[in-house]
Amino acid sequence: SMLISVGLYLAFGLIYNAVCSECPGLTNPYMVMQHTLADPKHYLVLVLTMVVSALPRVFCRVIQNTFRPSHVVEAVKQRRFLRDLEKKKKKRVAKSAISSGISVASYANGGNSSNNGAAARLPRSSSADNATTVTTVEMAHM
């Protein structure tokens, strides 16, 4: 409904400014809106106004979340930290598995190498002939 409202406003304004060449009033509105909408400075002013009007709220939120974060912000930070920690673990396990030639599932399960149906192909370089071979590494379901 907001888009329809803005569209109707623009349509009415453009039609009124194109038709009304000698309307009574303080100033003549003939083709003013058409010239304004064709000027790139108009759009620059609109964008600059939106950014400047949002700065006080953003600044207040930054100060509030820095010195006294809400429970939601603390939970989001904790979830991101745990996700990043898990990604680092997975990278470390996959790196060590590739370099030592053991499967990820075997390493993650403490030596129990059961295939859960999911397999990924990871490149492993051979030092004998400098050719790249592909080894199947079993991945454990998480």
Structural notes for this entry:
This protein is mostly helical and 142 residues long. It has helices at residues 2-19, 32-38, 40-67, 71-100, 104-108; strands spanning 119-125, 132-138. The chain has a two-stranded antiparallel sheet with strand order 1-2. A hairpin with a 6-residue loop joins strand 1 and strand 2 (132-138).
The assigned structural class equals mainly alpha
Global outline:
elongated
The average pLDDT score comes to 77
Give the strand tally: 2
Main β sheet profile: 2 strands, antiparallel
Low-pLDDT runs? 113-142
Q: Total number of helical segments?
A: 5
Per DSSP, what share of the residues sits in E-state strands of 2 or more residues? 5-15%
- Tell me the Rg in angstroms: 32 Å
Spell the H/E element sequence: HHHHHEE
